[in-house]
Amino acid sequence: MNLNVREWKEFLAKDIFDIKYGVNLELNACEESNDKDAVNFVSRTEDNNGVSAKVRKIDSVNVQKAGLITVAGGGSVLSTFVQPDDFYSGRDLYTLDVKATVSEEVKHFLVTVITLNKYKYNYGRQANKTLPFLELKLPIQHNPDRTPYIDPNHTYSEDGYVPDWQFMEDYMKSLHHKPLTTKNTVGNGLALNVDEWKEFRFGDLIDKPYKAKAFNKDDLEIAVKEGLRYITRTGVNNGCEMIVNASEIPQKYVEKGNAISIGDTTATCFYQDEDFITGDHMVIVRAKWLNRSNGLFVVGMLQNEQYKYSYGRAFLIDRIQETMMKLPIQHNPDGTPYIDCNCIYSEDGYVPDWQFMEDYMKALPYGDRL
């Protein structure tokens, strides 16, 4: 099914949803629990479907019902999820109940559309006051002659347009997927003997990092079929904010795959296996040893640095190069460290064990699906 976005119309969130503020609990005031009847505690995090913990039921607080959509008004602003189970909500969290009776597929479609607006809330901007007025572009219902159907009661918009719930459901069901399986089992992975690892200056391992050409999202067109990944500083979806039409992008500005992307103001790091373009403040890292598996290993190391770059401190190119990270090293057949006489990667001559990193990632559960 094609997404003819040009024919979609804009709706205000308050006209599509009943929006309510959550119960505003603090996690430190709750008792965490793994009991069978424990309740999900949904917060402003963008991870784990918004669930921060499971807590004991509180007799004086009503649980919020499964099927609601949760939206973070602060924190990881506009982190949006469908909640499959009853839950409690933390501070600055809103619940959205679709005014029409719709399926789970439709809710997930709407979640995606809401999430596409996250870029509007960078630099500390909150959504607490603006959420009801968030403009959502949605497919609309048509008459048999393909003219837009107009609701005389103007239930969902001042212009009388009505969201095409059935199209949303059909589109989500049309997406092809199979349950992800793995032949790798938990406990059969390679051991990480971290005590034997050595420190390396990241700049000694890589080619010189550089800033990518920045594209403004508003100047780009969402791809109908295949397109280019648009990589930004977002911390979700491998840094990909959307797929864009590649026909208007000069080839010289297209970044080739097999690279690490780093958002310098957010320190968000991801391995990019396909060609892509970027938004503002994106640094690109390349290296001769880089491949998908060892790239994911190294990205995991870089993500451990993210906590250092909060509150306006940016992960600039010089700081990226000066980052120190511990990595496994190559050994001689007798088990002693291999020493490179040219000291290419470190002053002491240690050499990162790229093959071990690759093998480790491939041995993890689902690593065989990389």
TrEMBL record:
It holds the Pfam family Methylase_S. Keywords: DNA-binding, Hydrolase, Restriction system. Signal peptide: none annotated. Its EC number is 3.1.21.-. The keyword Metal-binding does not apply. One of its GO terms (biological process) is DNA restriction-modification system. SUPFAM superfamilies: DNA methylase specificity domain. GO terms for molecular function: DNA binding; hydrolase activity. Residues 7-134, 195-315 form the Type I restriction modification DNA specificity domain. Belongs to the type-I restriction system S methylase family. This is Restriction enzyme BgcI subunit beta. It comes from Blautia glucerasea.
